[in-house]
Amino acid sequence: MRYARRLWPAFETYHAHIYFVPEAAEAYRELGLKGGWMGYFASRSAALGPASSGLVTAIFFNFHPAMVARALPDAWALASPEDILAARLRSADAALRRLLPDHVGSPAEAEAAGLAREAAEAPALAGRPLFGALRSLPWPEEPHLALWHACTLLREHRGDGHVAALTAAGLDGCEAHVTITAAGGIPRETLQVNRKWSDEEWAAAEERLKGRGWLDADGVLTDAGRAGRAEVEARTDALAEEPWRALGSQRTERLLELLTPMARAINAAGGVPVPNPVGVPAP
Description:
Elements: H1 4-16, H2 22-30, H3 36-45, H4 53-60, H5 65-69, H6 74-78, H7 81-99, H8 107-120, H9 129-135, H10 143-168, H11 173-182, H12 188-195, H13 199-211, H14 223-239, H15 242-247, H16 249-268
Helix pairs in contact: 1-10, 1-16, 2-7, 8-10, 8-16, 9-10, 10-14
């Protein structure tokens, strides 16, 4: 069995609390960043340096370009990428200590950090822009932060591959959301509000998908649409297997065993709500 799909909910949850916890929002406000989305785009892209809105739109893929442009490049005039990265790491430290009091500092977390780091350092960088930028950052010394950084790398490695799979399928950002909603995944109201596609843009994406035979007249996925969406997910998983091939099945199973209780504890403490616009389920 492929491991990419099985590991994803655990490492995604351990990473993704940073987008929901109050510690991060407060840290970005203290730097002068305006609004939650400016903090999101600046902090997630800061490893790239003072990136343009066009570059971040291209790499993040599914956000409305105007949404990104409202945050970047203005954020870089308020705080440097280095200061934002430092604030992000401090926020992860504070949040993980609050969310995981029984795990931070434990032997299990140290073991998980070592395994996750080995997996995260294994893949090639080519074709993985955000993963590659993050891999250039220094590793935190404390195990709970080294584990968070490893999960961040694994998350963005998978994300870079997902963008490649969507692009290969001929889908744009809005069309990708329409197909997720039509497949019964994340509700439209959650995706549309959080990615800022207008009703007119959403409807136009539906019409394009109908023209391709992916949606029927009622906006429901056709057999071709279901097959196309399944291919995107299968290709995403295949492109995300390299870390787990390198780690090997026995140690990958061990990492899953160690990481799953931590991810569940993050969910239980409200660190990552379910459902969420990321689409990650509870581990």
